[in-house]
Amino acid sequence: MRTEDVLAAIATGLWRWDNASGTVTLDGEAARLLGLPAEPVVLPEVAVRSRFHPVDWNEINGIVNLAVAEGTLAEARLRIMDVDGRVLRTVRSRSKPVENRAPDGTTDYELIGTIQEIAEPQPGTTAAHTPITGDWRRSREAFLLDAGRALAEARSTAEVLRVAASLSMPGFSPDGLAVFGVAGDRLSIIGHHGHDPGDEGPFSDMPLETNYPAAEVVRTGRAIYLPTPEDYKRRFPAAWPLAQRFDRVSWAFLPLIVAGRTMGAWMAAFKHPASFSPDERSVLTTVARMLAQALQRAVVAESERELTTGLQRSMMPQLGPEIPGMRIAARYVPTGGGLQVGGDWYDMIPLPSGRFALVIGDVQGHDVRAAGLMGQLRIAVRAYASEGHRPDAVLSRASRFLAGLCSSPESDPYADDGGQDSDPDSYFRSPRFATCLYAECDPRTGMLEVARAGHPDPAIRMADGTVLMRPTAGGLPLGIDPESDYPTTRFTLEPGETMMLCTDGLIETGGHDLDTGWARLRAVLESDAHENAYEPTYDAQGPGAGADTVGQLAPPHLERLADLLVQAVHGPSSHHTTGPLADRREDDIAVVLLCRESAERPPGAAPAHPARPVRRTVLTVAQVEPERIAGVRQQIRELLHDWADPDQVDSAVLMVSEMVTNVLTHTDGDALLVAEAIGELGARRLRVEVADGSDELPHKRQPGEMSSSGRGVLLMEMLADAWGVDPRGEGKSIWFELHEQSKTDADPVF
């Protein structure tokens, strides 16, 4: 059975109303419901419009316009009339407005939906306008509930005015609306509907002493009802010539009152006579009260948004100036609740040495005080950095500065005052802390010096899209211990690599913890790299000159990548991929991306063959930080996350752990590790070097059965494809190589 047959069996027809062409397509059942022969037909718009009650047609226009603006369904009840003006039946229309863009750029829409007959008693036999008594579409209470819901959901003045224009009052819908606002002793129109552009000119700015109904309503706070043109002309003869040209016959002017103060007036004008019965006046008065409340909320909300947006913009820096060989992108997203201000920030600081510093931090809290402390701390960090201090010194001074801001020598914030707050300013001096990461960068070499105060580690995306968490040394958050030290970690950002700095809001928002949050971000970083974040770099002649492109992949589009990272947390998909925690913890988000651009081919050089970028990581493990050996093992596993043979990965991790441990055990210096994976997938070569400052060379030993050491060289000989020791001027470098190979099949069982 066809779908059309099923719909016809339940008295439901299909229609398509094309507003651009002015035609309506009906199936057989829809044509029958409109009083036409029961067969599919395409009719002009005017032929279908003549079948609707004129009052219903006025209301359906507002419903459709609201549905177009909000992207929702347009649903209404319509009375179908015959050629003699008698009501044949009542139908329910449900349709979806679909926008269509014409070649000239204009936008129109078509309605696609259903018409279904409603079995209910019909009033009268003519289609003449009747007052509100016994509204057949909806009761007065139902209308007011719908109007209150729509006005309560409006968040701006424009939305409130749009909702007010679309309200379909039961039985006496106005044809023209206007909302007047008061500014000092002047009255002006802040929105209107049902009038042509420019019609508001004479009313846009008038003194409150003007003999005009809206001005009198504002002066007295009482509604004015004008059922006939004669009433208007008699009471307001000076304003009548202005109102006469709109061809209306009834008017209602009602005050917009909030908390006893008249903030404006609302005009409802009708092209058909309205007697303004007690029921009608009750509906208009209730709508005016709801409209006034909605406008007041919208004004307050817009003022708060303007205030908080201005506050955050004044505190957030502009990234610049442009740095040769480097590209930077940043995003800040305040928390969704309250005033939308918080303590997250980022900054880029030019340094006297010609380098620049990237700073990202998070002050405890999401309130106005957190935003204020953030602004003070950002200025202090910028001042210390501009003086030329090293990263560790900058954070040490910033920690003392924040501790001083939050201290109160006059009172003890932990003292028992019997439940009474003896110092009303104690809230603004209560202890607060802040996490921070400070990275000083040399744009010529890509060398980074990072100091970290309780902040998440940076993430590095290599040129081939592999993402590594870069462990760095760190200290306590700022403001906890004024004497805390902040060790510095050095590493190099290679050409084509991107470093991501972020606050914990990007990781943990959405019910995630650190592990699941990093997994979410890693998926975004890697997927963008593998899909279309890279673009080929062409020579000076441009892409159209030929096919000889540089083999090295170009840096990713940072702006797009920054948007993807934020969308992963605040986009629609984030609501379906919540983390393992029960709540969706909302937090501010700050993220900074730093990319070192790939080296371009010199002019006139021969084009390079496409080659996969080298995957490289460099780490230093100090004598006083043996616990970082675990981070070294994790780095090697992440570097070889797509290695063909897992056993080779385990071997590499074991040998690296043994080499770094030997340096810390048998020498007095630090261990410098350099690991590189070179070649195409499936045929790569891993080379790992561990350098130290000792001249003593390793030698092969014969450990006993119960010995706990002495097997390092034996392991290298057994597991590495090649290994060796390279003496240096001061110290030595121990290295090994592994050649990638597919995992061999298990030996057959005999």
From TrEMBL:
Domain of life: Bacteria
InterPro entries linked to this entry: Bact_Sigma-Reg, GAF, GAF-like_dom_sf, HATPase_C_sf, HATPase_dom, PAS, PPM-type-like_dom_sf, PPM-type_phosphatase-like_dom
Chain ranges of the PAS domain: 1-71
Keywords assigned: Hydrolase
PROSITE patterns in the record: PAS
Any matching Pfam family: HATPase_c_2
Protein name per its UniProtKB record: SpoIIE family protein phosphatase
